[in-house]
Structures are given as structure tokens and as C-alpha cells.
Design brief:
The chain has 5 helices and 23 strands. With 418 residues, it is of the alpha+beta class. β20 and β21 form a beta hairpin.
Length: 418
């Protein structure tokens, strides 16, 4: 055992173990499988990349074609509507005549003979006011006139006597039978008597004027209708105190209106004011009953535009024998615009508002977009009236947006016009 421990250790050669024939190819197949997997993956990658590149190429081509293609737009043609040459405006009905009756004498309402809705004739008695103080003053004034006339008779007698005395002393003075002082005294007395007669005549005129004033006030105790009409307001009852010429307590007693014919007032805009002529026919109707039309004529205009609303005040007289139109009614007024060209109408969606105002996009002869500034009139909702800027023969682009710059060539979607 010791001998083996003293001997040097010799390294052994690597021993190659013999591999059986059945196990010799185990490493090579593994490497082959790996290569095959790599080849399959490479093939699959190549097969996926080809369609993707094809799609990318198609997308690039489509994008280029889209960029090169013209935008497609919808267009309409402006139209002229003759029906819009007939102006339709709101109006208000007012009575042909209207009188507000107030008291012109102080007193108490003794009797009321009419009420609201009663039809009255001119001169018909409406009410009676009791004013005993006016009656007493009138009697006193009449007595004063009688007294003044009696005084005038006496003054005239004094004037005659003074004239006779003047003549007598004139003869005596000429015969030196009377002094100059007596002569001049009787001349003065005659002149004074004549002046008294003139003064009494003037006093009588004053007294008679006072009688006339009180007689007029007494006549005001009876209120009568100034014209044929209907009572539309009544604010007093028997026993009410009525006062005259006192703004603090004065109140309306009755209101009388003549409603045949009626006046219909309408405010015509400045754009149509030049087409309104006196004597032209007009038609009115109520919105609640549009089938019943009332015809009349334009009787007068203000011949001046309101500085605030820029409208022309126009009056239309409408016969109203059956009272179907009542004062204060809101009415619709149709006015035929004689000589007015039918306006140009475009869809509201064709107009755009820009910094320079309302504009529309139209197509020129080459199919390019051109923007035109327009002046607009009335807005009818879906359509708008064009006063200037279009002739009516253009192709107007619908819904123009910022992606349609000036000069861009476009294609029309379908036939132009409506």
C-alpha cells in the first residue's frame, strides 16, 4: 500500500467512449431542426411583408390620387320668386273717428243714457250733468243784463236832456243872454251824458257775453254724441262728481268711435317704401281667419321715413260695414309691389359671413371657386333675399367652408340647379 503511495501519478489520456451506431446522429438532427425553423420563419416573414408593402404602396397611390383629385361640391342656382314681390307686413286697425268726451262744467252726473257697446247717432243725448250753481249764475247774469239795459235807457234820456240844454244855452250865449261859463258847462254835461250812454252799451255787451258763457256751460250739462259711432268706454255712473278744467281730478266720461271704415296703419321698410303709391289696392286679413280677406286702398303716407325705424308710415282705408274689423286688432297687410322686380333668393346655407360681410361662393366658367360680397334683404328662414351681388344665373356653392379657397377648381356633384 505504501508502494502505491510513493509512485508518481501519471495523467490519463482522455478516453473516447465508443458510441453505439444507433446513437451517432443525435447532435446533427437537432442542428437541422433549428435551421429548418429559421428558414420557415424567414419565409413567413417574407410572405407577410409582401402584402404589407403592397398595401402601403396602394395607400400612397390613393393618397396621391386624392390629393390630385378635385373637391366635389353641391351647387344651386338662385331663383326669382314673383310671390315675394307681394309685401306682407303686420298692421294695426284704428277707428275712422274717435272722440274722448270730458265734462266742461262742474257738477254731479244726474243721468246716464248709454253704456259700452251702444251704437249712437250724431247729436244723441248720452248723459245729463246737474249743476245748480251754473243755473243760478246764469239767472244772475241775465238779470244784470236787464238792469244794464234799463240803465242805458236812463242814460240815453239824460243824453237827450243834456243836448237840449246845450242848444238852449248856445242860443242864449249868442244873444249875450248867458255867460260863457254856463255855455261851456252845458256843453260838458252833454258830452258826459253821451259818454255814459257809450259806457252802458259796453257794459251791456259784457253782461251779455257773460250770459252767453254761462248759457254755453249750461248746455254742456247735456253730453251728446259728436258723430255716429259706438260707445267703447264709459267711466261714470249717476251720482258721480264730475269736474272740468282740473287735470288732477278730470276723467274720461265716454269714448265714441266710428268704425266704418277703419284705418289700418302699417310701417313699410325703407327697401320697399318707394313702391308704395296712394290709391294702390291693399288686402288685409286676421291671422285667426286668413280665408276672409278685406280689400281697401292706400289713402295716404307720411312721405317721410321714421328716423329710428327707417320705415314709412302708411294708412289703408278698409270698408267695415259689419264691424268685423275692430279698432286695436292686429292684422296682416298685403301690398302689391307694382314695378318691383321679383327678388333673388338663395338658400341660407349658401351664405357665409366673413370679415367683409355676407359672401357666397360661385363657380366661374372654368369651374373655379370665386367669392362674391352680397347685400341681403329679408330673411325667410330657409332662404334669404339677395339685394345685390348676384344676377341670378350663377352656380352657388352650398356649405362653402375654409377648405375651399379662392380660385380652387372643384367638381359639381350632379346637375346644377334645383
Amino acid at each position: 500500500m505504501s508502494t502505491n503511495m510513493n509512485q508518481p501519478v501519471v495523467p490519463r489520456e482522455p478516453t473516447t467512449t465508443a458510441t453505439p451506431a444507433g446513437h451517432r446522429g443525435s447532435v446533427a438532427p437537432v442542428a437541422g431542426v433549428g435551421l429548418l425553423a429559421v428558414a420557415v420563419a424567414a419565409g413567413a416573414f417574407s410572405l407577410g411583408a409582401i402584402p404589407r408593402r403592397r398595401r402601403e404602396a396602394e395607400l400612397v397611390a390613393a393618397t396621391a390620387a386624392a390629393r390630385a383629385a378635385k373637391p366635389v361640391v353641391n351647387v344651386v342656382r338662385p331663383r326669382r320668386d314673383a310671390s315675394h314681390a307681394e309685401l306682407l307686413l303686420p298692421g294695426s286697425a284704428l277707428p275712422w273717428l274717435q272722440a274722448d268726451l270730458y265734462a266742461r262744467t262742474n257738477g254731479y252726473l244726474k243721468q246716464r243714457l248709454v253704456d259700452i257697446g251702444d251704437r249712437v247717432k250724431q247729436g244723441q243725448l248720452l248723459a245729463v250733468i246737474e249743476a245748480p250753481d251754473i243755473d243760478a249764475q246764469l239767472e244772475q247774469a241775465q238779470a244784470t243784463v236787464v238792469q244794464s239795459r234799463a240803465t242805458l235807457v236812463r242814460a240815453e234820456a239824460d243824453e237827450v236832456y243834456a243836448g237840449q240844454q246845450e242848444e238852449r244855452f248856445t242860443k242864449l250865449y249868442q244873444q249875450n243872454a248867458a255867460t260863457q261859463q254856463d255855455y261851456e258847462n252845458y256843453i260838458t254835461l252833454h258830452k258826459s251824458a253821451t259818454a255814459n250812454v257809450s259806457a252802458m252799451k259796453a257794459t251791456i255787451q259784457v253782461n251779455e257775453a257773460d250770459v252767453l258763457r254761462l248759457t254755453t256751460l249750461q248746455a254742456f250739462q247735456k253730453l251728446t254724441a259728436p258723430f255716429d259711432g259706438v260707445v267703447t268706454a264709459r267711466n261714470v255712473d249717476p251720482g258721480d262728481l264730475v269736474t272740468a278744467d282740473n287735470p288732477g281730478s278730470e276723467r274720461l266720461l265716454f269714448r265714441i268711435q266710428d268704425t266704418d271704415p277703419v284705418r289700418v296703419f302699417v310701417d313699410v321698410p325703407q327697401i320697399d317704401s318707394t313702391f308704395i303709391k296712394r290709391g294702390q289696392p291693399a288686402t288685409v286679413f286676421r291671422r285667426e281667419d286668413p280665408s276672409r280677406l278685406f280689400t281697401g286702398t292706400v289713402s295716404r303716407t307720411a312721405d317721410s321715413l321714421d328716423s329710428v325705424t327707417r320705415t314709412l308710415r302708411t294708412e289703408i282705408d278698409i270698408p267695415n260695414p259689419d264691424g268685423a274689423l275692430m279698432p286695436g286688432m292686429y292684422l296682416q297687410v298685403k301690398l302689391a309691389m307694382a314695378g318691383k322686380t321679383a327678388p333673388i333668393l338663395i338658400p341660407t346655407a349658401a351664405m357665409v359671413i366673413r370679415s367683409n360681410g355676407p359672401t357666397v361662393a360661385v363657380l366661374d366658367q372654368t369651374g373655379a371657386v370665386r367669392y362674391r360680397a352680397i347685400n341681403v334683404g329679408r330673411d325667410y328662414g330657409a332662404e334669404i333675399e339677395v339685394i345685390s351681388g348676384l344676377t341670378g344665373d350663377e352656380q352657388v356653392v352650398m356649405h362653402p367652408g375654409d377648405d375651399l379657397p379662392e380660385g380652387m377648381a372643384v367638381e359639381v356633384n350632379g346637375a346644377a340647379g334645383r
